[in-house]
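On clarity, I found the account of how folds are encoded harder to follow than it need be. What matters is that the chain and its backbone geometry are given together, residue for residue. For the editor and my fellow referees, an illustration may be useful. For illustration, here is how one protein appears when written out as sequence plus structure tokens:

___
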Amino acid sequence: MEDRGLYLLTTKTDNSNKLLCFQYGVDNSSIGELDSLITSFTTLVSGNEVEFNKSFKFKKVVSVDIVDNILFVLDKGANSVFKFDITGLITDDYALRRTGINDTNNPGRYLLKTIGGEGTSQSKNKLSKPSALSVYKNRIYILDNGHNSLKVFDLDFNFIHEVSSPNLFNNPNTGPLVSIVVDQYSDTNEAVYGYILSSKGKIIEY
């Protein structure tokens, strides 16, 4: 069965009361508008062609997060994280919409940067079977399951540090780690905590 998901990004700022969403799947991924009644999805740019004159296709999107106008997409199939600027889609910029020309033929430029891929060189920037990401206070936290570690980058994909924990990632009692949310501990305690969900429904505070 195809893995699919719908992630609410933000509310558009063009007075249309429409929501901007990222719909993802193995064979088709797109950014589009969802009306206020959540009954109609209109594609603005497809995941197959997100960069001008270049073919592009997600392999297996497993996690998405957004900071202001920047969208981060974790593709487990490509062992990579993609960074997109969706400013024009939020503001309904006329130049980016190119009235009368669909995004498949002339999508404009949205992809800013990527990180990941497999290999042995520059291993701190490589990913293997990543399962989730979370963005908090200008930091990107990635569960890098294949390397049994939690990796932290800034918003430009500059490596900050890595926490290696084979016991956490290979615990048969909890199962594989599948999701992470990073936030401050409480309204009165600003300490940063990660909450990791395992495949067996266990929540691990990290």
